[in-house]
Amino acid sequence: MLRQIHPRTARSKRELSKREPLVRENNKTVLFLRGTSCSSLVQETLSDFHSLKRPYCVRFSKKNDIHPFQDASSLEFFSRKNDTSLLLCFRGQLLDMLEFYIGKETARCLSQFRGEKCKVGVKPLLAFSGTQFESPEANQYTLAKSLLTDFFRGGEMQTVDVEGLQLLLSFAVGEADEDKRPAKIHMRSWKIITRRSGQKMPRIELKEMGPRIDFILGRSRMAETSVWREAMKKPKGVEAKPKKNVETDIVGDKIGRIHLGNQDLTGLQTRKMKGLKRSPDTDIRDGIAADDASIVSKAGEGATKRQKIA
Fold first, then answer.
1. Which residues contact 160 (CB under 8 A, 6 or more apart)?
2. Which of 218, 227, 150 shows the shortest CA–CA distance to 184?
3. pLDDT at position 1, please?
4. By 3-state DSSP, what share of the chain in percent is helix, strand and coil, each rounded to 5?
5. How does pLDDT run across 51-78, given as a tens digit for each residue?
6. Rounded distance, CA 210 to CA 113, Å?
7. Total Cβ atoms within 10 A of residue 118
8. Model confidence pLDDT, tens digit, residues 188-213
9. Strand partners for 108
10. Nearest to 120 by CA among 53, 31, 62, 42
11. Cys staple from 90: which of 5, 107, 152, 231, with CB 3.0 to 4.6 Å?
12. From CA 95, how far away is CA 76, in angstroms rounded?
């Protein structure tokens, strides 16, 4: 269960109100720190990730005796103090944790790739390929996809500029090998270059800019059920109110339904056709035919009367 803190002063109440979950969260900040024993490869990887996440990140250079899988209190304290909400998912408590090992054979950092890098603060495009990422049951790979998406996606944007699409991050995972060892997650970073094509749409080229990392999944810890349920609650006002008689089809087009009352068609002005107009000759012929019909009917009546008298 979550620990409830009751403020005693007005100042503490204001501080706690600032830390409460918001309906629209701000851009999440990442906290980078090193442990007591950290290899040069891990330090270079942290430096590369720090370059990709700027300016929404905080980095500590000193060693810290922190073991989050045994005790996460120190990590939670650093996160609350520096407002790094990407590390803490809900009310200052860690929810999910996943351990990544780096393959030494294929790892290459940013400095080992020549060429121009992407600009600071660029929102990357994310691509995940592999059946294990789409598993209906929660596993380490679905957790890795969730964490990596939350890590790299950045803030929400209403509009997107084509010139700002400069970075593509690809994550691919295969199937387990014959020795039943877990499959690696292959991370590749590509710089998107736009060229003139002589048409309206530019020609797109991809150039690898680093880092190139093959991750091996290690320990993991899922969130507690009670904390997860409370964190997944949607506050009021987030979901849009449904509009009556307005639907959205599979393509995404809006379809509206209009209800009309009883229509009076007696006063409806229709188009007058020349062929339907009555000419004077037609009126004369109709009048003569009507007179002939009346004479015939009178003659028939006289004949019936004579038959009765006889």
1. 123
2. 218
3. 45
4. 30, 20, 45
5. 888 888 888 888 888 888 888 788 778 8
6. 6
7. 19
8. 999 998 888 888 888 889 999 989 99
9. 212
10. 53
11. 231
12. 11
> CA nearest 88: which of 79, 98, 97, 100?
79
End-to-end CA distance of the chain: 117
Residue 105 amino acid letter: E
> Which structure tokens are listed for 227?
């904390």
Burial of 76 (0-12, 13-18, 19+ CB in 10 A): middle
At 71, the amino acid letter reads D
Amino acid at site 198: G
Separation of alpha carbons 43 and 29, rounded Å: 19
- What is the CB-side half-sphere exposure of residue 250 using CA atoms within 13 A? 0
Q: How many CB atoms lie within 10 A of CB 41?
A: 14
The conformation of residue 26, written as its DSSP 8-state character, comes to: -
Give 84-97 pLDDT, tens digit per residue: 766 555 555 677 88
- Predicted TM-score (pTM) of the model is 0.68
Q: What is the mean pLDDT of the chain?
A: 79
Parallel, antiparallel or unpaired: strands 213-221 and 185-195 = antiparallel
**Range list of H helices, the chain:** 10-19, 40-53, 73-82, 140-152, 225-231, 280-309
Tokens found for residue 218? 């290690």
Tokens of 47: 């430096």
Q: What integer pLDDT is reported at residue 126 of this predicted model?
A: 93
